[in-house]
Specification:
With about 350 residues, the protein is of the alpha/beta class. The chain is about 45% helix and about 10% strand. The protein has a single domain, classed as Aldolase class I (TIM Barrel, Alpha-Beta Barrel), CATH 3.20.20. Bound molecules: iron/sulfur cluster.
């Protein structure tokens, strides 16, 4: 196993059986994390990039079985932020050292392409030294091109699973993995830095599914890879299942770092929710990005993808200070930088 991990580090690849063996046991975690940390330090030093997350709408036309803001959840109080409110979040974030703003929302048709383009270009105009990332789901290639032309440069779209049959167990009829993959490849061709990713431990997930995800990521070669443990939300069809596993998530972060040395990998809020030190553990396992919330405090707890989400009560400045302390206690440091991917 020791040689296998070293080979993985050298070749950034391994055969299916080896990867599966690594996934199912925690026996080699210590070595895996150490190797992953060495790789991340070689490329990124101890730098941690911050992204200011602005959750600007919790309306969504979709009905994903695992998601707390799915269309059928009538317990959610819905909200939308205006362009001015979004800009106010960016102003606050800029003063705190954020140089990337991530506009994230459900698939909300209220925000037509024109409005998204206006939002993007207004941010770019006021903050020319910042990057705008979008995370607003599946749209047409033409829409993506318009967003790029307006100045957006990164796009996050988790594929959730690369296995067709399993995708159908997580999503209602009408949502197609094929379309999601089409979106990801379109975004890449247009020139976006693209982020994909998946949940760890949702109902019915197997090691085979995880292997399929790793193989899909090898094909896509994304710049960002976001994974986090599946966490239940009380008003969804998956409410009765158990949360995903912290240790498997950390192991996967380490594997991803070894297979995709250059990747921007966040220590997600979901990790911090499943364990008080989850994000620090994520960094030590190979993650190099954190995404604190810049949304107005009044709407934070309404973007409840899962239960008990952390950091919904603090002001942006408090979040930033708290993260600064956590990141440095873990042995890394937050930098004021747009934080681009460092490919060879
Ligand atoms: S996961 Fe995304 S697309 Fe699915 S219901 Fe939630 S916000 Fe909508």
């Amino acid at each position: 196993m020791k040689e296998m991990i070293q080979q993985l580090r050298e070749r950034q690849d391994a055969d299916d059986e080896s990867l599966k063996q690594l996934l199912v046991t925690s026996d080699w975690d210590r070595m895996l994390f150490r190797e992953a940390d060495l790789v991340r330090r070689k490329i990124y030093g101890d730098d941690v990039y911050v992204r200011g997350l602005i959750e600007f709408t919790n309306y969504c036309r979709n009905d994903c079985y695992y998601c707390g803001i799915r269309r059928s959840n009538h317990h959610v109080k819905r909200y939308r932020l205006t362009k001015e409110e979004i800009l106010a979040c960016c102003r606050e974030g800029y003063l705190l050292g954020f140089r990337t703003f991530v506009l994230q929302g459900g698939e909300d048709s209220y925000y037509k392409d024109d409005l998204i383009c206006q939002m993007v270009s207004s941010i770019r105009k006021e903050f020319p030294d910042c990057i705008v990332t979008l995370s607003i789901g599946e749209r047409s290639r033409e829409s993506y091109q318009a967003f790029y032309d307006a100045g957006a440069r990164r796009y996050l779209l988790r594929h959730e699973t690369a296995d067709d049959a399993y995708y159908q167990k997580l999503h209602p009829a009408g949502m197609l993995l094929e379309n999601r993959k089409r979106c990801l490849f379109d975004l890449k061709e247009i020139g976006f830095q693209v982020g994909a990713g998946f949940m760890v431990g949702p109902p019915f997930q197997t090691v085979e599914h995880l292997l399929t995800d790793l193989r899909f990521l090898q094909k896509l070669q994304p710049d960002m890879i976001g994974i986090g443990p599946f966490l239940t939300q009380k008003d969804t069809p998956f409410s009765g299942f158990t949360n995903g596993s912290l240790s498997l998530t950390l192991r996967l972060i380490a594997l991803l770092r070894l297979m995709f040395p250059y990747a921007l990998i966040p220590a997600t809020t979901a990790l911090g929710t499943i364990h008080p030190q989850g994000r620090e553990m994520g960094l030590k396992a190979g993650a190099n990005v954190v995404m604190p919330n810049l949304s107005p405090v009044g709407v934070r707890n309404l973007y409840a993808l899962y239960d008990n989400k952390i950091c919904t009560g603090e002001e942006a400045a408090q979040c930033r200070d708290c993260l600064e302390r956590r990141v440095s206690a873990a042995g890394y440091h937050i930098v004021t930088d747009v934080g681009n991917v460092k490919r060879k």
